[in-house]
Amino acid sequence: MAAARASQHPPRHSPLTPGSANCVRVAATPTGTVRLRESDDPETILTTTPAALNSLIRTLKTSTDPRPADRP
Fold first, then answer.
1. Among 13, 27, 40, 45, which has the minimal tally of Cβ within 10 Å of its Cβ?
2. Residue 34 lies in a domain
3. Could you read off the pLDDT of 12-66 as tens digits, one per residue?
């Protein structure tokens, strides 16, 4: 994923996230890439492809949480 600054494409975020804190915003571009930004650092934008994002999401969904059970 490449990092970029500023975006002309408005991001979307989940309606399940109250306000704008603690969320990742997603925007599709006319060229077919996907841009992601995190609410804590809105000036940093990651650019990726739909296939790479899909692969990341599938990996995260099937991975075991590496944190110890006593840590949130």
1. 40
2. yes
3. 555 655 655 667 888 899 999 999 988 788 889 999 999 999 998 888 888 877 7
| The 3-state secondary structure of 5-55, one letter per residue | ECCCCCCECCCCCCCCCCCEEEEECCCCCEEEEECCEEEEEEEECHHHHHH
Spatial contact of 1 and 38, defined as CB atoms under 8 Å apart? no
The pTM score is: 0.58
What domain count does the chain have? Answer: 1
Assigned domain for 29 exists: yes
* 7, amino acid identity: S
